[in-house]
């Protein structure tokens, strides 16, 4: 499992957390802080993010296999998988490929079916396609207040400490050799066809699933939560977080954790 970093704290049943593009395991720190005394919490840094190295293949299926590598490395045979943003797409591919690893699946606001990448994120992808995104992201290192004018400003309700998020999310990407270019390559390589292709497998995926969705998200409308409910036979319920945006698992962790506990306690 070369070049993959992760958080691994606590003891007990394993919760495995997967972030999306542009963030890292740091996204889950507040959720983990509430659960670490009762569960083993593992949060991956996907390739090119956090402390993880850049890889040649940064497609959604390749990212799903990085999650499988971590499970194999740590001997995780039964996990409660929780995912957000593009990590939700990764988790869906992981789930249909490695069903035996899963005890449950929880999806928060994330890429679903044809909404990959979402319309509101396409301007950022277009910057990446033109090779301009890395340079603009580098400006944030010295002017973190500009973070509110990026997609992060839409993903959070409030960014109280932009400098901390830049240090946690942006600097680790750009500090890698060719990390900015790799990130652009990752964004431009995300393709809805990867999720459309697994729809038949999702339709027979009976692993118990929970969908928790912020209703204030400009990227992933709550209609996609209902698509998951109607497609995945294992979905037990949809929980709506009123006004929650894409990154509500970070800034409103206290509202997510009780639903996770209740769901995981079900037989």
TrEMBL record:
Q: Which residues form the AB hydrolase-1 domain?
A: 16-250
Please tell me whether the keyword Hydrolase is annotated for this protein.
yes
| InterPro entries reported in the protein's UniProt record | AB_hydrolase_1, AB_hydrolase_fold, AB_hydrolase_sf
Q: What is this protein called?
A: Alpha/beta fold hydrolase
A GO MF term: hydrolase activity
Q: Which domain of life is it from?
A: Bacteria
**Segments forming a coiled coil:** none
Key words, A-Z: Hydrolase
């Amino acid at each position: 499992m070369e070049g993959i970093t992760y958080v691994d704290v606590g003891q007990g049943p394993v919760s495995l957390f997967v972030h999306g593009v542009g963030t890292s395991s740091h996204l889950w720190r507040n959720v983990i802080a509430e659960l670490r005394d009762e569960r083993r919490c593992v949060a991956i840094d996907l390739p090119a993010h956090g402390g993880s190295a850049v890889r040649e293949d940064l497609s959604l299926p390749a990212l799903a296999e990085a999650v499988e590598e971590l499970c194999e490395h740590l001997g995780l045979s039964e996990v409660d998988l929780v995912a957000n943003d593009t990590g939700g797409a990764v988790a869906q591919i992981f789930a249909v490929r490695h069903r035996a690893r899963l005890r449950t699946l929880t999806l928060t606001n994330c890429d679903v079916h044809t909404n990959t990448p979402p319309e509101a994120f396409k301007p950022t992808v277009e910057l990446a396609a033109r090779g301009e995104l890395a340079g603009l992201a580098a400006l944030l290192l010295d002017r973190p207040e500009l973070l509110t004018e990026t997609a992060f400003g839409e993903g959070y309700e409030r960014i109280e400490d932009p400098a901390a998020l830049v240090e946690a999310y942006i600097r680790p990407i750009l500090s890698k050799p060719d990390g900015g270019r790799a990130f652009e390559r990752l964004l431009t390589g995300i393709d809805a066809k990867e999720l459309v292709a697994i729809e038949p497998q999702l339709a027979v995926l009976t692993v118990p699933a929970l969908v928790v969705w912020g209703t204030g998200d400009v990227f992933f409308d709550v209609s996609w939560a209902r698509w998951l409910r109607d497609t995945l036979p294992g979905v037990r319920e949809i929980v709506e977080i009123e006004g929650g945006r894409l990154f509500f698992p970070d800034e409103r962790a206290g509202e997510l954790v009780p639903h996770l506990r209740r769901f995981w306690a079900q037989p």
